[in-house]
UniProtKB/TrEMBL annotation:
Keywords: Membrane, Transmembrane, Transmembrane helix. The keyword Plastid does not apply. The chain crosses the membrane at residues 21-47. It comes from the Bacteria. One of its GO terms (biological process) is type IV pilus assembly. This is Prepilin-type N-terminal cleavage/methylation domain-containing protein. InterPro entries: N_methyl_site, PilW.
Length: 365
């Protein structure tokens, strides 16, 4: 065997022996350390993604809640004052009883010609929880409560009425002795259509009271602390409370008053019952001059002249956000101005909209 061959075999044995010994302790520790760094980076990235996704979900739910609350309120306000037929401006507006115990308290009082019939004001604000509204509890302090009166936009044949509901029937016949009739589904509705023969359709009477409660479930073992927009609705002769949107912390309204009778709001005020002199001083002059003096009659006139409403909704996340401090202020309109900072760990946002009351403004135009 040549020396060259022997040298090659010796070198091969040295390489094979070194390979069989594996990694040294130092090499192994370096590899583990590098692996830990990579693992920590991956875990940090995963945690960051989870936190970001959680915050995105919270914000998405808050945006959906705020916009949905504005949509619900806008749709109802647009139909405020609807009585099932045109010409309701010939009726006088009166303050209905919130949470009425009887049909007569709703404000619909028909008179035989030539008497003046009354219908409830399309909307008016409450300053306190009305009596007889047992379900309106845990009302959020310094938030608005609004009563909306109208009838359902879906017509019902006299043969399809429900005995427990309350209906309004408006005459289209020139020879009918009353302009409208109101009663429970068990009552007889005698009014007719324009041909003075066919029975006129009925419309279910609607009264809604909007308010913000400090809780979604406000009694029993399920009581929580989630502020919620709720609605008290006149159903089957009594008020039923329905939670509408969770996470609504504040609700305020500005009312656009038509001062010259053209159907357009000329001035926004926070309280038609007792207008602020600061607000009315900023209103344009009207001819003839508009009477803002505080009285029951003027309050009714002011509410009758409301042609638009600015709605302000403060929506909040239903869960806290770690590391967040709410140092913002939120503009809630004329009644209370800005609210905040809350200095907590909950994110908020104000949603606003201007809603026109078509049934009043349309007839004036």
């Amino acid at each position: 065997m040549s020396r060259t061959t022997a040298s090659i075999r010796h070198t091969h044995r040295r390489i094979s022996g070194r390979a069989s010994r594996g990694f040294t302790l130092v090499e192994l520790m370096v590899a583990i350390t590098l692996g830990l760094f990579i693992l920590i980076g991956l875990i940090s990235l995963l945690v960051s993604n989870v936190v970001s996704r959680s915050e995105l979900d919270k914000s998405s739910r808050q945006i959906e809640s705020g916009r949905y609350a504005i949509q619900l309120l806008s749709e109802d306000l647009q139909n405020a004052g609807y009585v099932g037929a045109s010409g309701s401006s010939t009726f006088a507006g009166v303050n209905p009883t919130a949470c009425p115990a009887a049909i007569a308290n709703l404000g619909y009082v028909p008179q035989t010609s030539p008497g003046t019939s009354t219908v409830p004001l399309p909307l008016y604000a409450l300053t306190a929880v009305p009596t007889g509204c047992a379900g309106i509890i845990n009302v959020q302090p310094n938030t608005a409560m609004l009563v909306v009166s109208r009838v359902n936009t879906n017509a019902v044949a006299t043969t399809a009425k429900v005995s427990t509901e309350t209906y309004l029937q408006v005459s289209s016949c020139a020879t009918d002795t009353m302009p409208f009739a109101i009663g429970a589904g068990t009552a007889t509705f005698p009014l007719t259509q324009k041909n003075c023969t066919t029975p006129e359709f009925l419309h279910k009477v609607v009264q809604h009271i909007y308010f913000v409660a400090t809780c979604d479930v406000c009694s029993g073992a399920g009581t929580d602390t989630t502020p919620t927009l709720k609605m008290a609705e006149y159903v089957n002769g009594a008020m039923t409370i329905t939670p509408l949107v969770e996470g609504i912390e504040n609700l305020q309204f500005d009312y656009g008053v038509d001062m010259d009778g053209d159907g357009a709001p000329d001035c926004y005020i926070s309280n038609p019952n007792a207008p602020s002199t600061t607000e009315t001083a900023a209103c344009p002059a009207a001819t003839p001059a508009y009477d803002w003096t505080t009285s029951a009659a003027n309050a009714t006139t002011n509410w009758s002249n409301v042609m638009a409403v600015r709605v302000h909704v403060l929506a909040r996340n239903t869960e806290a956000s770690a590391g967040w401090v709410d140092a913002k202020k939120y503009d809630m309109g004329l009644a209370i101005g800005q609210v905040g900072p809350f200095s907590d760990t909950v994110k908020r946002h104000v949603y606003s909209a201007v809603v026109r009351l078509y049934n009043g403004s349309g007839q004036r135009e």
